[in-house]
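Database export, one record per block. Field names are fixed; values are copied verbatim from the stored entry.
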Amino acid sequence: MERRPEKEVVKWLTLEELNEEIRSRKVCAEVLRKLFFVKELYKGAAVLKAAKEVGVSKVIGYVWVEKWNKEVF
């Protein structure tokens, strides 16, 4: 039995259009995540702590630091 949502939502986009919006904005979200990571480093956080703050592994954190140190993402 399908449960009705607690609050109805206006469907301004079709499901396909919504999926396309999600795909098109994913890159922006990833860049923003990296910038928050670097901001934590600027404030003095260790790579491990900054990585945890944005939800990535320590290894990814070190990869991002290397890329940042070469040039802005």
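Remark 1: The chain is about 65% helix and 0% strand.
Remark 2: The chain has a mean pLDDT of 92.
End of record.
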